[in-house]
Amino acid sequence: MKKKWLGVMTSALVLMSLVAGCGNSATSNDKEIRIGGNFELTGGVADYGKQSLNGIMLAIKEANDAGGVLGKKIVLVQADNKSEASEAANAATKLITQDKVSAMLGPITSSNAIAALQISQDNKVPLVTPTGTNTKITVDDNGQVRPYAFRGCFIDPFQGIVMANFATKTLHAKTAVIYIDSSSDYSKNLAESFTESFTKNGGQIIGKEAFLQKDQDFKATLTKIKSLNADIIFIPAYYEEVGKIVKQARELGINVPLLGTDGWDNAKITEIAGTGPLNNTFFSNHYSAEDKDPRVVKFVEDYKKEYNEAPSAFSALGYDTALMLIDAIKRAGSDDPEKIREALEKTKDLQVVTGILTLDANHNPIKSAVVVEMKDGKQVFKEKVNP
């Protein structure tokens, strides 16, 4: 009888341990708050991931140096998603189910963030992307807000509107060709937004062409685009392909303004395209390091001191998104994922480097954008656009 009773108790304990391991749930720790970092540290957009990660680590370092949050040290548990959607989902699973993080920062790109979303939703752990601009990250196809998905940047439709308005009102363009990365949700979503706004402003889209990520030779398509004689060419894509497209376009004698979005923001674009070819190009971005706001000046100084390089917009957004999450944890008074989620939803008038941040009902920030012009290989502030 005693043996039978012990067997029953043992089975019960095993069952309880299995059940406890099924859901997520960040384990409460008296000394640390564990935050997951799901980043593109290798692969096609690794520079974006590293820059954003640097901004996040700087914000966390400053918070820890100031005594931590809720009397605890913030620990960032990193995972490399290798710039691939499937790996982003794997990284999310590891961070949430194995590392037991209270919230997750990243991924950086829209496609990777979307791939990681279901894991965060299923396990009820907030995911905050610093730079994923696709609308589907926070709102699903049925128009329902994803309760555990948030972002620290403006959304694609706003970038599309910004660049369409810039094209028609500042450059006085009447015709445009759109050249997209058909393998990227980011690129396709921006193209839709630009098209809608450009035509609404009286412009005409006279051509649409596509390429794939990692393509090398764009001259055949660019020759076709050149024959259309458009006033501007809109290329909403990432720096590696954009750099090659810009270089080859100029070699073919395409001298019209080339327009893009925040995916252009990387120093390597100059290495790839060359300084001359990038003249007469413009792209939307989240902030400008030339801004003389004291907060921007201090951030740039602190970042340079920490990493010995100037911060990009991805660095600034990483920093700001970490500040947003830290602020939410403070207001939540807890590292419980559900309480953090509730606090994130109530983020209002938070002063960060890229401006004053308030989350709307769709978990998207209401904030400004800037248009940057490339001149002799350097980014020059062109104009600021308010929402």
UniProtKB/TrEMBL annotation:
Q: Which family does it belong to?
A: Belongs to the leucine-binding protein family.
Q: Which Gene3D superfamilies match?
A: 3.40.50.2300
N-terminal signal peptide? 1-20
Q: Which UniProt keywords apply?
A: Signal
Instruction: Tell me any Pfam family this protein matches.
Output: Peripla_BP_6
- Return the PANTHER family for the record: LEUCINE-SPECIFIC-BINDING PROTEIN (PTHR30483), PERIPLASMIC BINDING PROTEIN OF ABC TRANSPORTER FOR NATURAL AMINO ACIDS (PTHR30483:SF6)
Q: Where is the Leucine-binding protein domain?
A: 32-377
Q: What is this protein called?
A: Amino acid/amide ABC transporter substrate-binding protein, HAAT family
The organism's lineage?
Bacteria, Bacillati, Bacillota, Negativicutes, Selenomonadales
